[in-house]
């Protein structure tokens, strides 16, 4: 199969190449695609060097599959041209997620709805993906009324510039380094917490918070689920964490909840408070599972559950989810 990775030199694009190789996806010819300033550079895939090409060259090569991770404006401008050429696009930006004509897919939940006609498929927001893979089995059993989520998100979700800012600040604090470093955020991130991810909207929420609200309903196919979110950037790498409070229509049993989570595809239950075992970003790093723990009843109101969810945002939150979509398409002869 001829596969293009658009944005191949970025954090997520690099991770996509890694995941494609790890999962032995049937790539016969790789087209690493990036902006003009990166054309001619090389990336390593399966022990071989592949030259980075521009968008026009990649489109002319007519790949069967294009994994996009180059930002929303690039996706809006270029994905339709690839789709019109018969290329299946799996897009990691927010460009197509809420388009009613495009599927928003987490394979464990709704890949079965995909058809050969779906030429632009949206990959959800990283913080939404890890939440819904845990919510879905519980929703099927107890029906969710309302979700209150607070996120604690890794700097890797912003990109390399944010990682460089964090590490530059840390070197300055620990060793008095005078080297310059970029500022991805309006404030320092090391030894700090920033309660803003993306821009603020007129309703006082950020775009990231509204993504979680809207995308959850679309992926799970239920507009009646109410979601309210507060998204926060913290100085960690390895994965995003979420504190999730879930109100159900039906009463639940905690042991049954644990059994449902233990058996859910893509979910790993890590929940042993007596041994101080619970999910942490350092444990989720470079893993594809979504980890859940701190499972407990909300004692302030009936039929309500508290959970703590952690996942590697560059893998399941982005690259792995996209590759899993592609794997499903191959398995069903849709690609």
Task: Describe the 3D structure.
Helix content is 34%, strand content 23%. The protein has a 6-stranded parallel sheet with strand order 2-1-5-6-8-7, sandwiched between helices. A 6-stranded mixed sheet has the order 10-9-11-14-13-12. The protein has a two-stranded antiparallel sheet with strand order 3-4. The longest helix is centred in the middle third of the chain and has 17 residues, at 126-142. It has helices at 11-22, 55-60, 72-84, 107-110, 126-142, 160-175, 207-220, 254-263, 281-284, 315-331; strands spanning 2-6, 29-33, 42-45, 48-51, 65-68, 88-91, 103-104, 120-122, 144-153, 226-233, 240-248, 267-269, 290-297, 304-311. It folds into 2 domains: 2-124 and 318-331, 3-Layer(aba) Sandwich (Rossmann fold), CATH 3.40.50.720; 128-313, Dihydrodipicolinate Reductase, domain 2 (2-Layer Sandwich).
Quick summary:
It is built from 10 helices and 14 strands. The protein is an alpha/beta fold and 335 residues long.
List the helices and strands and how they pair.
Elements lengths: L1 E5 L4 H12 L6 E5 L8 E4 L2 E4 L3 H6 L4 E4 L3 H13 L3 E4 L11 E2 L2 H4 L9 E3 L3 H17 L1 E10 L6 H16 L31 H14 L5 E8 L6 E9 L5 H10 L3 E3 L11 H4 L5 E8 L6 E8 L3 H17 L4
Parallel strand pairs: 1-2, 1-5, 5-6, 6-8, 7-8, 9-10, 12-13
Antiparallel strand pairs: 3-4, 9-11, 11-14, 13-14
């Amino acid at each position: 199969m001829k596969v293009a990775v658009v944005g191949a030199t970025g954090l997520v694009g690099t991770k996509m190449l890694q995941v494609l190789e790890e999962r032995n996806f049937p790539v016969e010819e790789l087209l690493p695609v990036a902006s003009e300033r990166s054309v001619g550079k090389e990336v390593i895939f399966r022990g071989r060097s592949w030259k980075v090409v521009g968008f026009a060259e990649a489109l002319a090569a007519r790949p069967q599959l294009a994994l996009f991770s180059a930002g929303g404006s690039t996706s809006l401008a270029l994905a339709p041209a690839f789709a019109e050429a018969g290329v299946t696009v799996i897009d990691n930006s927010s460009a197509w997620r809420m388009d009613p004509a495009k599927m928003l897919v987490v394979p464990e939940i709704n890949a079965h709805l995909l058809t050969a006609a779906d030429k632009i498929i949206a990959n959800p927001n990283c913080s939404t993906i890890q939440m819904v893979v845990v919510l879905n089995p519980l929703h099927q059993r107890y029906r969710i009324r309302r979700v209150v989520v607070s996120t604690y998100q890794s700097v890797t979700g912003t990109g390399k510039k944010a990682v460089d800012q964090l590490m530059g600040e840390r070197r300055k604090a620990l060793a008095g380094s005078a080297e310059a470093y970029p500022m991805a955020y309006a404030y320092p991130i090391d030894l700090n917490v920033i309660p803003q991810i993306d821009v603020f909207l007129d309703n006082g929420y950020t775009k990231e918070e509204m993504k979680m609200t809207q995308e959850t309903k679309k992926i799970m196919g239920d507009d009646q689920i109410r979601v309210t979110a507060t998204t926060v950037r913290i100085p960690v790498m390895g994965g995003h964490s979420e504190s999730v409070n879930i109100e159900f229509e039906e009463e639940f049993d905690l042991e049954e909840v644990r059994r449902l989570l233990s058996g859910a595809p893509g979910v790993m239950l890590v929940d042993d408070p007596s041994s101080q075992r619970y999910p942490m970003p350092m444990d989720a790093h470079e893993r594809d599972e979504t980890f859940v723990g701190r499972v407990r009843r909300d004692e302030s109101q009936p039929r309500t559950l508290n959970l703590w969810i952690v996942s590697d945002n560059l893998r399941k939150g982005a690259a792995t989810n996209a590759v899993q979509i592609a794997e499903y398409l191959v398995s069903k002869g849709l690609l």
